[in-house]
Write a structure and sequence with these properties.
The chain has 109 residues and is an alpha+beta fold. Helix content is 29%, strand content 17%. The structure holds FE2/S2 (inorganic) cluster.
Length: 109
Amino acid sequence: MGSISRLSNSSPTPLIFPKCVRVCQNRTCRKQGAAKVLTAFEALPTPEVTVTGSSCLGQCGNGPMVLVLPDMVWYSRVLPTEVPLVVEQHLRGGQRVTKMLYYRFHPQG
Ligand code: FES
């Protein structure tokens, strides 16, 4: 009984999903420089953020595509030179980089 009342009085534990950056490494994005984008992210590790290459994200021709989870923020035509901005502003600062957002999923930017 004691443990049941203790459970019912406890506040719910918030679900926190770790941030993950997925950089498409499929054929079309690779032709557009996705390997260098992935390397640029890996060169700037951020605590508690995982960076992985991914299979096709279904947006071929707009790459290199980068998807930040769980935020569901999509960046398109990402250049290696833009990666430090994404890392600093989005991953570390919590603010999406408006000018790099993928227009199909973020039409208002
Ligand atoms: S190849 Fe990258 S989105 Fe399809």
